[in-house]
Amino acid sequence: MKRPLYWLMLTLLLVAMSELQTMGMMPDMARSLGASTATVGTLISVYSFGMAIGGPLIAWALRLTPPKTALLGVVIVYALLEAAVPVVHNYWWIAALRLLTGSLGGAVFGLTLTMAARLAPSPDRIASSISIVLNGLMFGAVLGLPISHAIATAFNWQTSFVALGIAGLIIALLDVSALPSLPAVSAQTSADDLQQFRSPRLWSRYLVSLLTIGATYGAFSYFTPLLEGDAGFSTNTTTVILFGYGLCTVIGNNLVGRYADRHAVPLLRIGHLVLAGALVVLALFSRLPWAALPGVLLVGLVGVSMNPALVARVVDVAGAGNLVNTVHTSVITLGVVFGSAIGGVAISLGQDSSSAAAMWTGAVLAILATCVLSAQTLGHKARLSPQPVQD
Question: For the domain that residue 60 is a member of, what is the CATH number?
Fold first, then answer.
């Protein structure tokens, strides 16, 4: 039963690569489009905004469609729009297409996680099944930037979009035979899925996800200037370190996925504390290469790799419905945007513009995530404790 999970992983990898692809070729796109690099950089935020807002809307529209049919349809439309980007050759039209592909990417995220949960051999194996699919997110985040940069350097930036579009069509074609057909959920099940959003417990678990991912990306977004500017590593060495960071996210994701079904809360507690500790070390000793290197790798091991435990806690309280998972994707995406933005503000307010300021903000967010998690678990224990009998 694991074979379909790996195909879902490959499908998720495709859209994860698309999210960061413009980051790897911003100067080329800026020159070609007659725009500033900063303006082209906003295409990343536009894509993320599409994931956060458009993803749940598409999930709602497809709520009664069989998951395989919905996934194939979304991937095909995504691939066609991705390949159409070079055709328009206008910043605002490209921004509109990035908004749409981001929305479709958010829907793919929710659909793949929902299918992974339904394909799990038993309810206590949901997190481990999801962790396999989430490897696509880990690999995609690491490979998207360097591959798009390499394609743009060897050919041009337009080729990167066409290549990902063709890859999307090939993956959709392979998914036809590789993925099993699952029945669509009933209207009642869909209504129950929507009812889950009235639960404060669900939103409090979303908050832990927001803070965890925000803490990680509040630091990760500024690892390159920290490694090159503060620690003094060369550009090539920094690239190798960031690949090492990506490898650590994959290792951490699989380790967490193996135990998240039964030990999600302890894993998150340990992860938050280690994450905060690693970021404090980076903040204090960012100019020391021997401290910066293990600090970055440790963040990879305990940062976004907490995703299986975060998903397991959401599934535990609200089920594995497509809308619940897609909104969770939106929350995670907002965590990326929020963490990166607050890290940037902290750096701009600092006296020496050191990237260490972003590490401090990440550490604070990780500690906040620990506090929220502790409040949740204490409240849960209070609800479960026996009440005194009234005479």
Answer: 1.20.1250.20
Query: Tens digit of pLDDT for each residue in 15-57?
Result: 888 877 887 687 788 888 888 777 787 787 788 888 888 989 9
**CA distance linking residue 158 with residue 166, whole number of Å:** 13
Regarding whether 316 and 168 lie in a shared domain, the answer is no
- Tens of pLDDT, residue by residue over 51-79, are 888 989 998 898 889 999 999 999 999 99
Q: Do 160 and 309 fall into the same domain?
A: no
Q: Is residue 300, in this structure, part of any structural domain at all? A: yes
Q: Which residues contact 123 (CB under 8 A, 6 or more apart)?
A: none
**pLDDT tens string 239-250:** 788 888 888 998
Q: Beta-strand (E) ranges in 194-320?
A: none
- As a three-state string, the secondary structure of 100-117 is HHHHHHHHHHHHHHHHHH
Contacts of 80 (CB under 8 A, 6+ apart): 165, 169
Last residue within a domain, chosen from 184, 201, 234: 184
267 Cβ partners below 8 Å, 6+ apart? 256, 259, 260, 306, 309
End position of a domain, from candidates 156, 184, 212: 184
Same domain for 271 and 333: yes
> How many domains in the chain?
2
Same domain, 124 and 147: yes
**Strand, helix or coil for residue 70:** helix
Check: CB of residue 103 under 8 Å from CB of residue 56.
no
Write down the pTM of the prediction. Answer: 0.83
Instruction: Give which of 188, 189, 152 is closest to 23, Cα–Cα.
Output: 152
What does the DSSP assignment read for 115-184? Answer: HHHHHSSSGGGHHHHHHHHHHHHHHHHHHHHHHHHHHHHHS-HHHHHHHHHHHHHHHHHHHHHHSPP-PP
